[in-house]
Amino acid sequence: MRTYVPKISFISTSDTEKERLLYQTAIIASGFYNRKGFVISPKILPNIPCVVAPEFYKHLTPSYWHDAARVGPVLPIQLTDLMKREVSKLKIVPVDTQIIDKLSENWATLSDKFWPAISQLFPREIKWMGEIEVRVTNYGPRFSFGLLSSQKFQKQIIHLRVDANLDDLATAIVSSFLWPQQADGSISFSQRTAIVDFVMSRFELKKIFPHHNLSNQNLNRLTASYHQQSLDYCRSLGIYFSADCQDIVNSHNQIFGTKELKIINKLLDNSGNLVTNDDLADTIWSSEESHSYWAINKMIQRLRPKLSQVGLKSESLVTVRGRGYKFLP
Q1: For residue 273, with 0-12 CB atoms within 10 Å meaning exposed, 13-18 middle and 19 or more buried, which class applies?
Q2: Which tens digits make up the pLDDT trace of 285-312?
Q3: What's the pLDDT tens digit per position in 180-214?
Q4: Distance CA 105, CA 8 (A)
Q5: How close are the terminal C-alpha atoms of the chain, in Å?
Q6: Residue that is last in its domain, among 215, 239, 263
Q7: What is the rounded distance in angstroms from the CA atom of residue 225 to the CA atom of residue 221?
Q8: Are 135 and 12 within 8 A, CB to CB?
Q9: Chain segment 41-51, per-residue pLDDT in tens
Q10: Can you give the residue range of the structural domain that contains 228?
Q11: What is the DSSP-derived secondary structure letter of residue 185?
Q12: Which pairs count as long-range contacts for 280-285, CB under 8 Å and 24+ apart, including other chains?
């Protein structure tokens, strides 16, 4: 029986690179990559699971990074007008066409072996892909992919960094089948990555890609110094995560009142999540003392300029009308 083969193309343009930058900055600012163990770096680090965030990211304003953190990694990512305006002004050079052509030629030599193996492993899922657009990029992790639904003949966009190889492209395709849009929330990131590694290192795929790099193995062998370098570089870009904010507040605790410190620490401990007025009241006052939402509101008003004073963004302290507050790093 004839094997179904999705149409595949390889491209890189200034527009695809700008779109890549927009989505990557949102994911970086959310802290997603740090939580998963990736290193944020201005350049490619050989044999290290890194996310390339070039130094020209420093030209992006604090307001941009605030929006990026608030947008976060949740799909579909809702980019703000401010983010789009700032990125539109950047001059970004696409990947050299010779690199793209070479990648396309090399893939063509493996395609006849790869797709029959995939059709045996994923006979139903293979038809989720009507076409694959591989966007070769200078930024982000070695590869990333869109989340598919269980509908037939969708367009799948895969980003492949310039240092990536055909193994990475194949892994992205396999991941697309094992990481559907309606993913089982009970399976963690590392567990799902382990499943992808299992598939890639067995069956016919092992014969095609005998030197497959195990993703989890690479993440697990990173040292603390790499993670510290990553955090330091993010700070140099103007990106602060909740742990950084906690350190900053603690190092300037003399300018905060006792109750103000309790409020800001409670919000930082629950960074990105709603802390209700009742939760804040319980944090500030004992059960015998009277609670006042009005007093909480006044303390929040006093906190905002103090956050600016210590180098944090006052707008990070967000009011959720009638319910409470959030801290968005």
Answers
A1: exposed
A2: 987 788 889 999 999 999 999 988 887 7
A3: 755 555 677 788 888 899 999 888 999 999 988 77
A4: 12
A5: 55
A6: 239
A7: 12
A8: yes
A9: 999 998 889 99
A10: 1-239
A11: T
A12: 280/324, 280/325, 284/259
